[in-house]
């Protein structure tokens, strides 16, 4: 019994070390693989705000929670809470619309429908998808292009069906969902901090 418990403790300790090591390796690769895209995405957002635009966020599942998180960072502030907030809207937070539209019409158009009603050409759509294959995000990007909006996506290694669809596609160099999500949060925080610093400069 004691040996079995010791073996289980060893396996858990190894699991912890392996997962932290795996995550850190992918995040370190972001420096070479994603820095230029992060810079370009930040410039697109800054340009939109200079033209009185808004940033819209969307995602599904875990990516939906990250979209909501990052939208909040833009409004509430990363490190400063005394600055004038920028316009930031998360499309997956309106539960009444989401449930009504997906029930009556379909889930694939929940984001594109909202953009039709509230978006304009100076706005930016920031979509998050680990697989890059979310149909509702593909439709949202196509709708955003019709409106004249700039689009940014965060995906995994291949980019999925979203590959080359956005103005900027930040592809995390991994096929592991957890590592992709962890990296998406790091990238999103960096972009939000860049926007906040820009906000300070322009106050």
Secondary structure topology:
Layout: H1 2-50, E1 55-59, H2 62-76, E2 88-90, H3 95-104, H4 110-118, E3 124-128, H5 135-147, E4 150-155, E5 168-171, H6 177-202
Parallel strand pairs: 1-2, 1-3, 3-4, 4-5
Helix pairs in contact: 1-6, 2-6, 4-5
Separation of the first and last Cα atoms = 65 Å
Per DSSP E runs of 2 or more residues, the count of β-strands stands at 5
- Uncertain spans: none
**What order do the helices and strands follow?**
HEHEHHEHEEH
What fraction of the residues are assigned to beta strands by DSSP? Answer: 5-15%
| Largest sheet properties | 5 strands, parallel
Describe the structure.
By secondary structure, the protein is an alpha/beta fold. Helix content is 60%, strand content 11%. It has six helices and five strands; from the N terminus they run αβαβααβαββα. The chain has helices spanning 2-50, 62-76, 95-104, 110-118, 135-147, 177-202; strands at 55-59, 88-90, 124-128, 150-155, 168-171. A five-stranded parallel sheet has the order 2-1-3-4-5, sandwiched between helices. Helix 5 (135-147) links the parallel strand 3 (124-128) and strand 4 (150-155). Helix 1 runs parallel beside helix 6, helix 2 (62-76) packs parallel to helix 6 (177-202) and helix 4 packs parallel to helix 5. The mean pLDDT is 92.
């Amino acid at each position: 019994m004691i040996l079995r418990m010791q073996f289980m403790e060893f396996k858990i300790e190894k699991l912890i070390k392996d997962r932290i090591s795996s995550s850190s390796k992918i995040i370190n690769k972001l420096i070479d693989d994603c820095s230029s895209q992060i810079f370009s995405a930040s410039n697109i957002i800054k340009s939109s705000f200079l033209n009185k635009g808004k940033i819209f966020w969307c995602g599904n599942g875990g990516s939906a929670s990250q979209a909501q998180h990052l939208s909040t960072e833009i409004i509430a502030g990363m490190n400063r809470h005394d600055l004038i907030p920028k316009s930031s809207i998360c499309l997956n937070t309106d539960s009444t619309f989401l449930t009504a539209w997906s029930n009556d019409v379909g889930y694939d158009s929940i984001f594109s429908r909202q953009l039709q009603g509230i978006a304009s050409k100076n706005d930016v759509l920031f979509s998050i998808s680990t697989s890059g294959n979310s149909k509702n995000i593909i439709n949202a990007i196509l709708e955003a292009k019709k409106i004249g909006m700039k689009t940014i996506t965060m995906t995994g290694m291949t980019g999925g069906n979203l590959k080359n669809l956005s103005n900027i596609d930040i592809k995390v160099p991994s096929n592991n969902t957890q590592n992709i999500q962890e990296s998406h949060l790091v990238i999103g925080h960096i972009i939000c901090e860049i926007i906040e610093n820009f906000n300070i400069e322009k106050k």
